[in-house]
Amino acid sequence: MKTFLDFERPIAELENKIEELRHLSDVGDINIADEVGKMQNEADRLLQRAYANLTRWQKVQVARHPERPHCVDYIDALIDDFTALAGDRAFAEDNAMIGGIGRFRGYSCVVIGTEKGADTTARVAHNFGMAQPEGYRKARRLMQLADRFHLPVVTFVDTTGAYPGIGAEERGQAEAIARSIEACLALETPMVCVIIGEGGSGGAMALAAANTVIMLEHAIYSVIAPEACSSILWRSVDYARDAADALRLTAQDMLEFGVIDEIVPEPMGGAHRDPAAATNAVGDALALALEAMRDVDGATLRRRRREKFLQMDTQVA
User: Fold this and answer.
1) What is the CATH number of the domain that holds 206?
2) Among residues 53, 68, 85, which one ends one of the domains?
3) Per-residue pLDDT tens for 194-223?
4) Does the N terminus or the C terminus of the chain have fewer Cβ atoms within 10 A?
5) Hey, which residues does 216 pair with through a beta bridge?
6) Rounded distance, CA 287 to CA 5, Å?
7) What mean pLDDT is reported for the chain?
8) Looking at the structure, do residues 191 and 288 belong to the same domain, yes or no?
9) Are residues 87 and 44 in the same domain?
């Protein structure tokens, strides 16, 4: 059963009626193809109009949609012969951070990403995509492995942020994130980051200091979640909508600021409506980004990456 967002209610009503009519057609001799076609055209028109004028808060809702493709979906669709590698060699394995080696369209590469989980059981197992220090230390270990064997690094980011628990803080959460960012900037191999859903705070930045940063059309990228920002500024989560506007966290905002390099268009209605088309579009963007860096030497890749972030304009227009 599809999950509809609040602003999709008129579309949901039409699509439910279409399903009911189709069911009637299946169980009887009633020919309702014309009526179904008219209703489907109207639903498509409403969907196109809704997604052509999304507010920032609506973009936040789309980026968090539970049926949106997750990190493991992109790995399954795009990476051949993926072999997961576990552990940070210091404390434990972190299931919120997926990492390993595989092949992407002829490239041997290291793939790292944050995984939220697609259902309740998976979300609990993956800690809702909130990595702990051992997750970021694993990411750093895999980046260093990629550097040693001259393999490109591809990262998929979808997290509300790093896990804020006491245990994580006791084990050095801030230091682990900083070391992961340091590892990104030290790489002498191509690095491409794709923000596929939420790019939240330092938990996202730990995997996003890349040569090329790509965002899906309805993804978000921010220093803080709108609800947390609302709680700090207004002492209430009721102003999350206003916080989203103030944060300017959409892919379009990020491209305007120069924080990202490319936006990948999503299927009409969001990536969750056509996951195969979304993953293929991301694959095409990844292939072009990696191809552009194929013949660039390691020292130049490292220098360009560092200069990119050092020169980034932090002034909000």
Assistant:
1) 3.90.226.10
2) 53
3) 999 999 988 999 999 999 999 999 999 999
4) N
5) 264
6) 32
7) 91
8) yes
9) no
